[in-house]
Design goal:
GO terms for molecular function: citrate synthase activity. The protein is mainly alpha-helical. Helix content is 57%, strand content 3%. The structure holds carboxymethyl coenzyme *A.
Amino acid sequence: SGFITLDSGYKNTGATKSAITFLDGEEGILRYRGYPIEQLAEQSSFLEVAYLLIYGELPTQKELESFTNEIKVHTLVNEDMRKIFDGFPVNAHPMGILSALVCSLTAFYPESMGSVTAEQERLSIVRLMAKLPTIAAWAYKNHMGHPVNYPQNRLSYCANFMHMMFALPVEEYIVNPVIEDALNTLLILHADHEQNCSTSTVRLVGSSHASLYSSISAGINALWGPLHGGANQEVIEMLEEIKADGGDVKKYVEMAKNAKTTGFRLFGFGHRVYKNFDPRAKIIKKAADKVLSSLGINDPVLEIAKQLEEAALTDPYFVERKLYPNVDFYSGIIYRALGIPTNMFTVMFALGRLPGWIAQWKEMRETKEPIGRPRQVYVGHPKRDYLDINSRS
Ligand code: CMC
């Protein structure tokens, strides 16, 4: 009906009003509910930030305690879900396991579907926050062929995750505070990023009044792609390839400059919105240096990353197109230092992004947004008549 404006990739089209995250791509500013990302990364905890995103204000001590305790009550995952989990092949990508098991929560908690009460919605939120780390650690254990570790609720959110990932069955696992702290920072930096691809997916799916679990599962799948959250895995694979190839970063910069013919992009470079720098990348680069030096790790890949950054940032191709390192460029280096394997990197991103997805889903439902239904410009055949199969050439 009438005139349709076409904006492929929504480069200039706002899809919603939102009071959650402020982002200024020209100035490199990112704020959650008004609070600068630099302050949150430095001073707060991931659960505090999750509360802030989801409920709109920083929690009081009492609110944070009750949010944390409630999450602890729900960290176990129904043992029947293990049967689904056990069916995955050992080389299943952890993101596939994550999205499938999150979607299956809809089957285990059918009351999360349809019109839900405020109390049921609150429970779904808490369950997701509580169970996603457990499911994520299971996905890793599947890959390793190891028995799963049950959650330890005496530990913090981050320490419990590291315990479920790395503790051996009969030994107590002591989480290094440097690691706990680094994980906390990474999760905070990933916690929300306004209307990115996965968040828009969560809102779009949720706009049909699909359950929170199915909406988040769809978001996980959107995040998986290499142009979005999957980029962090691609970055490390690229850096390792450069290293194996003799460390000639200039060669790769040249290849990326011909992205149109080579099909090769520098992963971890460029961003749809940030055109001067990605404030998260600044924080992560510093954190990577700090973590590696305090753990006494000398990762040659970090050196290659720095050389590659330098080579790209002094090349007119990258300068003209305003392509800077994004959040994914250095995050993988920290994940590696934490002992997290490459194919788990995007899962780590999902753990961090969860509160943002939840907050955006909740906002979308509370503001009673209509069902999302983009239009199109049709460019196919005009009307033509059906041909009998024998008459087709
Ligand atoms: N390497 C080489 N050239 C690039 C790159 C890159 N990484 N990124 C963009 N370009 C070029 C692109 O070829 C185009 O050139 P031209 O003007 O000659 O046509 C120009 O820069 C603009 O690129 P675009 O694809 O139109 O920009 P976009 O806003 O549609 O895409 C992006 C943004 C992040 C998908 C893209 O920069 C990219 O593919 N980067 C690599 C993947 C990556 O690191 N993704 C993580 C993003 S941050 C975290 C997240 O959201 O998950």
